Amino acid sequence: MPLFRLVVALAACCTALAHAAQPYQASAPLSWELKNARWFDGRQIQRGNLYVEDGVFVAKKPAKVNRKMDLRGQQVLINPLAEAHNHNLQTAWGWGQYADKYIDEGVFYAAMLCGDPAGVAEVGPLAATPAAPDVSFVTACITSPDGYPLAAVLPEPTPAAAAAQSLIVLVDSPEQAREQWPAIQARGGRWLRLVLAHSERPELRQQPEMFGRLGLRPDTAAELTRLAHADGKRVVAHVETAADFDAALAAGVDAIAHLPGYANTLNEPAEQFAISETAAAQAARQKTAVITTTAATALFKLDDAALAALREVQRANLARLQAAGVPLLMGSDVFIGTARNELHALDDLGLDRATVLRLATQDTPRALFPGRRLGCFDPGCEASFLLLGGDPLADLSQVDMPLLRVKQGRLLTRLADVAASSSQATASTADAPKKPAPKAKGKTKAKSTGKSAAASSKTKATAKAKAR
């Protein structure tokens, strides 16, 4: 069976077993030769030959090749996707439920934005294996004593229950921020997450039904950001409204989680979520990244009119941020999903297809892991890629059906025997192929035969003489 057909067959098996008990496994690092390849470079499809050795792309053919594929200019390679906002891999239970789903959907990089140190410590060893997604964990998630997400995580959302839990850090003022900073530092991590929710409406704090759904005061968020930056940490802020967006910018955060208008839990006018041109310009000036999370809107089961109004605000916000040059990152905040949900949500909103793919495969992974060469096919880049059956710029659904998943040169598969045997068959590309010996012509054969017969007769005669 030709190698490419074998790969397609294996891919079909892997897809059919997506929910089977067998987890993804990684082969040994392989050397690859990908002839007549096409790949997405962030803007368009490029063509040529690609080579992989020691987990990275290289400029020349390796001396020995484990996997040689002729893609014949039909299939397309893209870098793996990244998820900048989720919570489903920050506990051991969630990891068991969803880690393989990430690999299955081609999402190799992720950020979990509200884990607690104990839970993340359990997940850490699981995330450190070759067949696992690479994850950045936030272990300091900070809100007000009546703030989000307390209503979602507490069995009984009361002040007493909030004070007793340890998942979320509760801070009520700039003074408390300074007092609690040593404890926040002790939670570790390079990032901390702040919650701003309806910060422009202090009167909501007096309403019992709003308990667990609010967030930090703007001055408290600003002080926490100052402390974090002084300590070399970065800050991502959860926001709900355009006013929260403004408060996050005023605080000086590094990233904003949620495009305002991803939800409308208080049935407010749609204009409450519209980002101003001034705010967009400020975000661009401060290089504040915005994590989109438009896929999460579908979780709120809005009626058609309310959904249409939010989608229009989202389109306008995206256009305004893009026009200003604000860096966008792809994140879904869909607990049962991955960045693939957001990929399609942004496509449905009309975002340029090449931009959508670039956010997923280049901008977001590089933002999550800035010290690594990700999202590229140049020599020295990590050799992590998905093989698609066709061009995703023409048909985005191709991303939903990877034929092959490769991470740092390792083949990822649910078939244990394939993972174990992948490096055994090798082919040399260094040695020149041996040329077959030329066939002798008929006349030459006759001469050769005659000489051989004469020599044979002479030898026999000599032998008889000696015998006498």
UniProtKB/TrEMBL annotation:
Keyword DNA-binding tagged: no
Superkingdom, natural source: Bacteria
Compositionally skewed regions (Low complexity) per UniProt: 421-431, 449-460
Keyword line: Signal
Residue stretches making up the Amidohydrolase-related domain: 215-398
Region (Disordered): 421-468
InterPro entries xref list: Amidohydro-rel, Metal-dep_hydrolase_composite, Metal_Hydrolase, Metallo-dep_Hydrolase
Listed name of the protein: Amidohydrolase-related domain-containing protein
The organism of origin for this protein: Roseateles puraquae
